[in-house]
Amino acid sequence: MAPWGDVVLGLKPLADPPATPVDVLVRATNTIDGTRSNQTFNVDWQEPDPLTGQAVYRLVNPDIDGGRNLLTTNIEEISIIDDFGWRLEGPAYIAPGDGNQELYRFFVPSDNRHFYTALDSERDFILNELIPNNPAFADWQYNGPAYRVYSTNDAPSDALPVVRYLNRETGAHLWSSSTIEQDILSQQPELWKNEDVAFYAQPATVNDVFLP
Asked: Of all residues in the chain, what percent are helix, strand and coil, respectively (each to 5)?
């Protein structure tokens, strides 16, 4: 496993996608010796399918204390961070094309972790209260909307619940769409706090598997 674990600038969602490829800077820290590396990638923008939605992939970086997870629809991002210690676990779910709620993404460089919320109120509280006033949130970076999901109060009957868990030791979060994984986490309440369903999506199928 590559020791490069601290991806400081990943691919941020773009409010106005460019018509041509763009250069993206990725900075990383070697978690073994502390050395840093910069690398620039030329990335093409991919428009989502408005009908079928997008496969969302979950990645893990076990080299970081306690492990870190990332959710992304961006295949270019997967290809890039694969060189920095992140391991692709596979498709977690489908971000629905008819989703009624944005999922917002934050990045915390000091912990090399991401935070996602589908609540406008939680996003606004982080932006307007925690980041300006709480030193523990001073380096939180708002990446904007990541993709669309179903809200917890207005989801189709066949939608897939995605549950949010808090790691009590590291402060990092885990988003799980797997009932098997959720059963395992529920047996470790001293480590994992169940923070309830965060949002809903559509189940992934074998046809959604992507191998970079």
From this structure: 20, 40, 40
Residue 154's Cβ-count burial label (10 Å; 0-12, 13-18, 19+) is exposed
What secondary structure letter does DSSP report for 92?
E
Place of tokens 């059963």: 183
How far apart are the C-alpha atoms of 51 and 97, rounded to whole Å? 5
- Give the residue from 109, 66, 68 showing the smallest Cα distance to 89: 68
Residue 105 tokens read as 């993404």
Q: Say how far apart CA 64 and CA 7 lie, in whole Å.
A: 11
Q: Which residues are within 8 A (CB) of 203 and not within 5 positions of it... i.e. 6 or more apart? A: 93, 94, 160, 177
- For residue range 128-140, list pLDDT tens digits in order: 999 999 999 999 9
The whole-model pTM stands at: 0.73
SS (H, E, C) 153-176: CECCCCCEEEEEEEECCCCCEEEE
The closest alpha carbon to 94, from 58, 59, 53, 60, belongs to: 53
Amino acid of residue 146 = A
DSSP states along 97-162: TT-SEEEEEEEETTTTEEEEE--HHHHHHIIIIIHHH-GGGTT-EEEEEEEEEBBTTB--TTPEEE
Percent of the chain with pLDDT over 70: 69
pLDDT one-digit tens code per residue, 82-111: 667 788 888 999 999 999 999 999 999 888
Instruction: Give the CA radius of gyration of the chain.
Output: 17
- The residues near 127 (Cβ < 8 Å, ≥ 6 apart) are 142
